[in-house]
Specification:
It contains 9 helices and 3 strands, in the order βββααααααααα. By secondary structure, it is of the alpha+beta class. Strands 2-1-3 form a 3-stranded antiparallel beta sheet, sandwiched between helices. The chain has a domain of 127 residues. Helices cover 43% and strands 15% of the residues. It is elongated.
């Protein structure tokens, strides 16, 4: 007998409260019920609300597939489906049908439900603000989820795959002077923490810019001339105490690395 199945539930961490559906009780509002085995519970992580990861619980584990399907069906019936106006669940079936893999059509239906019912004035939290306690709970749970390497890897992969098949929303567009000024003002006075700098440094280690990319960068800058005003601004950011190396000295090891790096520069 195969007892490797379980029933899992997605909870909306934005809605902390006591939710009771017959004999089933939760501390957050449930919005999806499923059954599976192995890593099945991760398959719907794209179905987030406001890009906030859900709280995922394995309601019951070590079950046979038949028992898991029956419990899934009972939970969906007790909690209620959103599309039928009976409850908050985005499930599109009553469960118990053994659909181990979600089709592209079902994914689209789920996406349409969110687009049609969770945007603007239709969103249940439209015009409302989270309490300090609620924000702390969301922050704590988000950090807990985002500290899982497998989740981060999946998110990065998803973003990468998306931009392989879709152009950037800013492709071919130019920022207005007003937007550029807002971005500039937002960055004034901001300094990256040493921890942040360290993370950027680590993420860039081992990256090699291809000759093709260097050529594109070079061609993009051909013919461009900086105005006197821009040159003056750049100069001021590098003078005296503003210079990032002000009062510091490169170690012998760093100077050696810089020397070796310059020797290996490919001129194009």
């Amino acid at each position: 007998m195969n007892n490797s199945f379980y029933v899992y539930i997605y909870l909306d961490q934005q809605k902390a409260n006591k939710y009771k559906y017959g004999k089933y009780e939760f501390d957050y509002e449930p919005f999806y019920v499923g059954k599976g085995k192995d890593n099945r519970w991760k398959d719907h992580l794209k179905c987030t609300k406001n890009n906030i990861p859900p709280i995922i619980i394995k309601y019951c584990e070590n079950m046979t597939e038949l028992d898991a399907l029956n419990l899934e069906k009972k939970l969906i019936k007790a909690i209620g489906r959103f599309d039928l106006k009976y409850g908050p669940l985005v499930n599109l079936t009553d469960g118990g049908d053994g659909a181990s893999n979600v089709s592209e059509l079902t994914k689209k239906k789920l996406s349409d439900i969110y687009k049609n019912n969770y945007i603007g004035v239709k969103h249940p939290r439209y015009g409302k603000k989270h309490s300090t306690k609620s924000k702390q709970i969301i922050s704590k749970n988000t950090k807990k989820v985002m500290n899982q390497p497998e989740i981060i890897a999946k998110i990065k992969k998803g973003i990468s795959e998306y931009y392989k098949n879709n152009n950037s929303p800013l492709l071919g567009k130019k920022l207005t002077k007003k937007t550029k000024e807002k971005m500039r003002l937002a960055k004034i006075g901001k300094r990256l923490s040493e921890q942040h700098k360290s993370k950027i440094s680590e993420s860039n280690k081992g990256r090699i810019v291809s000759i093709e990319t260097r050529q594109k960068i070079r061609e993009k800058h051909i013919g461009k001339k900086l105005s006197k005003e821009t040159k003056e601004k750049i100069s001021l950011t590098k003078k005296g105490k503003n210079h990032p190396m002000y009062g510091k000295h490169h170690s012998k090891e760093t100077r050696k690395k810089m020397s070796e790096a310059k020797k290996n520069i490919i001129k194009i």
